[in-house]
Amino acid sequence: MPRFDLSPAELREYRPEVAEPADFDAFWARTLAESRAVGQAPELTRVESPLALVDVYDLAFSGFAGDVVRAWAVVPAGTTEPLPTVVEFNGYNGGRGLPHERLAWAASGYAWVFMDTRGQGSGWGTGGSTPDPHGTGPSVAGFMTRGILDPEQYYYRRVFTDAALLVDAVRELEFVDAARVAVTGTSQGGGIAFAAAGLSEGLVAVMPDVPFLCHFERAVGLTDRDPYHEVERYLAVHRGDAEQVFRTLSYFDGVNHARRATAPALVSVALMDPVCPPSTVYAAANHYGGEASVVEYAFNEHEGGQGVHWERQAAWLADLV
Amino acid sequence: MPRFDLSPAELREYRPEVAEPADFDAFWARTLAESRAVGQAPELTRVESPLALVDVYDLAFSGFAGDVVRAWAVVPAGTTEPLPTVVEFNGYNGGRGLPHERLAWAASGYAWVFMDTRGQGSGWGTGGSTPDPHGTGPSVAGFMTRGILDPEQYYYRRVFTDAALLVDAVRELEFVDAARVAVTGTSQGGGIAFAAAGLSEGLVAVMPDVPFLCHFERAVGLTDRDPYHEVERYLAVHRGDAEQVFRTLSYFDGVNHARRATAPALVSVALMDPVCPPSTVYAAANHYGGEASVVEYAFNEHEGGQGVHWERQAAWLADLV
Amino acid sequence: MPRFDLSPAELREYRPEVAEPADFDAFWARTLAESRAVGQAPELTRVESPLALVDVYDLAFSGFAGDVVRAWAVVPAGTTEPLPTVVEFNGYNGGRGLPHERLAWAASGYAWVFMDTRGQGSGWGTGGSTPDPHGTGPSVAGFMTRGILDPEQYYYRRVFTDAALLVDAVRELEFVDAARVAVTGTSQGGGIAFAAAGLSEGLVAVMPDVPFLCHFERAVGLTDRDPYHEVERYLAVHRGDAEQVFRTLSYFDGVNHARRATAPALVSVALMDPVCPPSTVYAAANHYGGEASVVEYAFNEHEGGQGVHWERQAAWLADLV
Amino acid sequence: MPRFDLSPAELREYRPEVAEPADFDAFWARTLAESRAVGQAPELTRVESPLALVDVYDLAFSGFAGDVVRAWAVVPAGTTEPLPTVVEFNGYNGGRGLPHERLAWAASGYAWVFMDTRGQGSGWGTGGSTPDPHGTGPSVAGFMTRGILDPEQYYYRRVFTDAALLVDAVRELEFVDAARVAVTGTSQGGGIAFAAAGLSEGLVAVMPDVPFLCHFERAVGLTDRDPYHEVERYLAVHRGDAEQVFRTLSYFDGVNHARRATAPALVSVALMDPVCPPSTVYAAANHYGGEASVVEYAFNEHEGGQGVHWERQAAWLADLV
Amino acid sequence: MPRFDLSPAELREYRPEVAEPADFDAFWARTLAESRAVGQAPELTRVESPLALVDVYDLAFSGFAGDVVRAWAVVPAGTTEPLPTVVEFNGYNGGRGLPHERLAWAASGYAWVFMDTRGQGSGWGTGGSTPDPHGTGPSVAGFMTRGILDPEQYYYRRVFTDAALLVDAVRELEFVDAARVAVTGTSQGGGIAFAAAGLSEGLVAVMPDVPFLCHFERAVGLTDRDPYHEVERYLAVHRGDAEQVFRTLSYFDGVNHARRATAPALVSVALMDPVCPPSTVYAAANHYGGEASVVEYAFNEHEGGQGVHWERQAAWLADLV
Amino acid sequence: MPRFDLSPAELREYRPEVAEPADFDAFWARTLAESRAVGQAPELTRVESPLALVDVYDLAFSGFAGDVVRAWAVVPAGTTEPLPTVVEFNGYNGGRGLPHERLAWAASGYAWVFMDTRGQGSGWGTGGSTPDPHGTGPSVAGFMTRGILDPEQYYYRRVFTDAALLVDAVRELEFVDAARVAVTGTSQGGGIAFAAAGLSEGLVAVMPDVPFLCHFERAVGLTDRDPYHEVERYLAVHRGDAEQVFRTLSYFDGVNHARRATAPALVSVALMDPVCPPSTVYAAANHYGGEASVVEYAFNEHEGGQGVHWERQAAWLADLV
């Protein structure tokens, strides 16, 4: 994929107007309050594993509407003290997989928690195990358009609520230092991290990596790659619904969540990314409510900085915790 | 797509063993009984349209679990007498669209009813309007793997029940001659037609056109084209679930439904069809419980006979009604 | 296909200079006169069909050079009075197919006539039956470059003449009200409709839907999709022929035909159309000689508005007839 | 393209039954006689060129129906004596191009004549200049289905006649030794060479290189690559025409022409050729009426042996002339 | 990719004849002896990292011809006792990347050593840093055909020697228990593991995962996917070199190396693997010189079992060490 | 490929700043001097061939570091006098092939010499036979990134040196008029021709045809087609190396070599060329140090003018020699 978006100089200054509904804060305050009202205490179950250096737990917590959502929690073996903690969200259609697959944060002395994205986890990797027990109106194959005509019914209302409630739940765990919780994630996980950052108080750091779910009005039509393209296909069939669809999406736009976040942020962007175009990432980073640093990967597509970027994150986070 | 399946001679004799669960009939009897128990009378609403030669109705009926499902009903203008009726089901991810898009049956003097497939209708065409208000476990993008670990939860349990209950509902309409109801459909619609044929009594004819949803154990892995391929991708992630998945699918296999059907059938098959391979179609046709004629389209892929086949169907059905 | 053409605001003002040969009108006047001179009266033959609500006719009329061209004529059953009439032209490489495949206009009370495009009809659908008994110089596979070095020999000279003479012929039919004839068509059919509109007198309406054959100098090289791309491939081989080729095409450019048309027009354009780029459609619409309304489909590719647009056309046309 | 056809051992023995019409010889005798009856003497025009070592001529001869067909004739500069001669036919949709592009035969001391394939020459390379002044019924884009419903009207009737009449014409040239004329060609050119070999008397050698146009009933449906695939697409639309189409093709099948040829033949075949599958080539080679050697290129697709094979041909032919 | 290779039942019995050069053992004995003769002691350099739970080392050892080759060595933090050790080789065109990217073995209490494949490491991931300071004859892009005309010059002679010498080097490290060294790798890494197993003494286990580099004569031509396809392309140009090429490859065929291996083996195979077709994997497993278990992934392509298979390996290996 | 680069008007004025290292001339002077110091006299061996009109020689000359590089030399049969000479370089991954494949220059009375590109010659055609006996650091498959971190080690340092030394060698041949040597080549061959033109004295003409290897900083990222894309993939893995990579490439940039060339040049450019974008070609042509004419092929992709352009070259060169 060659260069197709704004030039590097333009990107760094790109701060577009992005629509925000008047009741954005009220919508989310109500949403979180309703789900918190029906939630229960998280359950932590020790899991046997060959991983001698770490302790592995299956974490079951109450997400949207009290639905049980699962996560892995992995900590250095024998941890008894509260640790700085990294909460991670996953990319599109991946599940939490198996705990041995992502060990770098725990091996670096953090408590690491990895959320299963409800309903997803069958597209690649080793699977997920959290259902999404809510139906949907007509939708394109995929998750992007489930319930897209109504913010109340939209799929990501449930996912973002899960994410915010996972931050709550994690803070109740005895091996977590509630004052030192960071959120991170790649692609969809980065978009969820922006949302968690906007919806949670007192995070120590936010690390969205080539984040998805930002500046939908630009993204839809700028790229023909899924998942943004799912919205385009929906609108190609439901020809009169564009206004309503983009109104729904405005409640979930990473730009609007980023505006409300205040913890220090380290954002990555890949300048040839055809999946999450760089201008959509910069739109969120440049509107970020706190201090945000952006790391550019000039010749990468959506894979971004991969392990190189993790080293950047690890060094940056170490200075904050 | 060149020839890739059995030879024509082999196809015509192909009658494979297909697994059938011991409680197949009990499962479906219970399923239909439960949904019928919560159903309500169908509602017919006249729709304004420029189509002067026909009357158009929006039909809302109670499908699975009493969910409201929509359909179009189109009849010759001013119909007052019960007519022979064609109930049609749609292809994968299409919706019922707009009533002027399929006028041939009504223009030929039939009452024509076209079911909206729940949750679908956003993939192509002009849309659908029936939600699927039931959640799902982790699934591949698409509809094929929603709830696939449990026959009770499987997506097509709801769709096939909708289809059978639509036959019930249609028979209550005053412009329908309940003794002369035929079912038809192309691709997914053909698979649903087989199911409706196996689950309904007293149909006058069954016309599956290049039907999907037949002989899953052969189809999955024989073609790399969606929708069968969705199951393969699910199993590629959920590596231990093949037995459970195929057990679920056995309740929905067109072969097993075809075995129970008795009305005369006209089945079409395209010999170069990479989506619904011809051997999977012949598997159902050759196991059909009544008299089944097969029309072969030797050089067609999944488009099959198109309008040419409709003329075959129209002539064949005219002799039966 | 993401957005690739002018912005919506630019499109609406786009009114490019398009070359027009000095003898454009003389060329066409002579062409039509010569073919009219050798024409014979149209022949209408009733066709048996299961379509009880309509009467179906095979219409054979004299097209270019007196060649026999076929069309379907379908009218409400038992029509005896002159009706408002819709003459429709088909998309690239489609044939007139079977009469039951397009019933909406006749079912809405119009006489509907559907022209077979000479030589075409073997690319998709259910076929055509009109030969093109004229040879060609070297040409790319397809129809776009047949005779392209000479306006006299160019393929579309024959097709556009067929279209204009079909309007003549239709007006001789007893079930047609000659004062209320509209022309329409999708893609290539839309381009032919522009030509018929420019070459015929007294049409009541013109409805080109995502029209092809407009503003060749921009289209060739803007898209790599056939059929415009056929011209590019021809010029890639015949490296010195660009001037001559574009001179030929200027006689057939929808922009030049649109300039001469005066009947009210309803034009559709799909803003992500990679086959008939939106700027080429707007070029014709913005040069249209009469009143032209444009309906935009913002998220569609070449499929455009499909059945949704037919409803727009039907409502718009009803007000005119 | 991996191996997909018969095994090498099976190929070498493959001698399928191929349908041949009873009037095959009568058809061709009449065809050639009619065209010969209206033909005129070939015209040879010296062409200026920078090619000092050879003399270049534009050859215009009378082909099918007396149509003027062009060819290049290139001979060693100053040739005054009759030379052994190679007549070459071109691949699909190529033209005769420019004389400097193929110099190997003339540089080896042969008179070399390269026929322009009528109507072709716009698909690749540097072009052709021979029109095909005969119309056609509905056809797929390309040349394979022009007039395919009737052997009299079929495109290759004209091309094969051109080829046989070119052999006639060449023998009239003073720099040609009429007793030492060989025919050759690659792909379509190889198929034409088989036809020329079957239709001409007294050739010294025949060298079809990865020949096309052989064993149509197997080829159509075995490969999804054009040009054979053009026939499949035609039959996919014209669903009832298979018998008639294959009857037409039987007059043009390289197998049937090969049966009638008697000059020594050197045939090449590429075992991974997805365009001209090896079994279709062996079908013709194994039915060849004279002595035929086959050179296999085991790991090549349709490019075959390229320049390596020309060296094989040159050595083989040198022994015969 | 649908099923394309032998059936599961055939695969399990597949034990083809595979050519083996008479001097296979002599070739390798000499090769290893020569390189050992010029080798130097491995150098281990502690690397700073945020990974608190493990110690990370850069290991530089003498590979083929004494060339310096790099590896990562990662052990539980503070390890002082010899540990069971896993030596891992990488997939095609990947480098050793960064040490935090693969932590599962070290986190499970093993010393883990990961070899950089010489010259590779620029195709994906986070890079490699080992040059291949040896030239090559003409080769296809990629590594498969470098020096392929001569076993002495062939690229994998250097790589396999590196692998065997890494096993030597690892046994000299103080944190390694020389009697409990296992080798593993995925794809190319699995092929190298077979070679290391055949060339090394006293390994405790061998775990090739969807191994590449097995049964070349079948693989080349069975799949059109790289890297096997590189050989096919080479042979398509070098048309006379097949015998010599396959002779070279016979020294490197995983089947021949597997025959000589004796340590217990756990082999994985993906039944729909288009890159390393299952029959080529079974060919090596069924010829394996010791006890070999095969784990099948029935619906996977080349990704195979991924993290699920690592759990299988970890459990299996724990029983052996 | 549609238009994607600058407009024709912009292209003709495009004269970008291109980085040039301060020691460019010193680097090349030293490089050539070192290789000349170890070179030996060229060896010319007569080759048997059926090509009676020309004499064919295998030319072995000393290239970079004294490595033996091969070329074909072809001259009119019996040449005894010094002739004007064309030295040609080949496209990416092609070899010198067989002498009969390119006869136009020799047939026009020139001595023609065609260099084998070291290490290449296995990608297409009939092969090469010159090894590249120098190793490389980690590289992407292909030749573009071999040694790319260091100008001393970069692959094209060897190739460009070969080219300059071939000009030296050719001038020693008795059938060559040293004062009338021209260089030419297509694609990669055109880039090498620019380099040879900048590094050699006293050439009579330079004819780069759709040249590659020009203006790397623009090319990498503007096109996603190999070979430029190889550099992009390298940088996507080696995320910190861009500065060093582009510094290396600046020694090899056709723009910098063109600046130093003084012989008259005829450059071709294809305006839709996605492999060697037209702006990169114009960058070199507009910086050319002597008189440069540019021939545009407006509708061509990377095939450019093909045989049509050869005629342009032949006429242009004839005026100079």
TrEMBL record, chains A, B, C, D, E, F:
Substrate binds at residue 92. One of its GO terms (biological process) is polysaccharide metabolic process. Pfam families: AXE1. This is Prolyl oligopeptidase family serine peptidase. The active site is at residues 187, 273, 302. Transmembrane segments: none annotated. InterPro entries: AB_hydrolase_fold, AXE1_dom, CE7. Residues 1-319 form the Acetyl xylan esterase domain. GO terms for molecular function: carboxylic ester hydrolase activity.
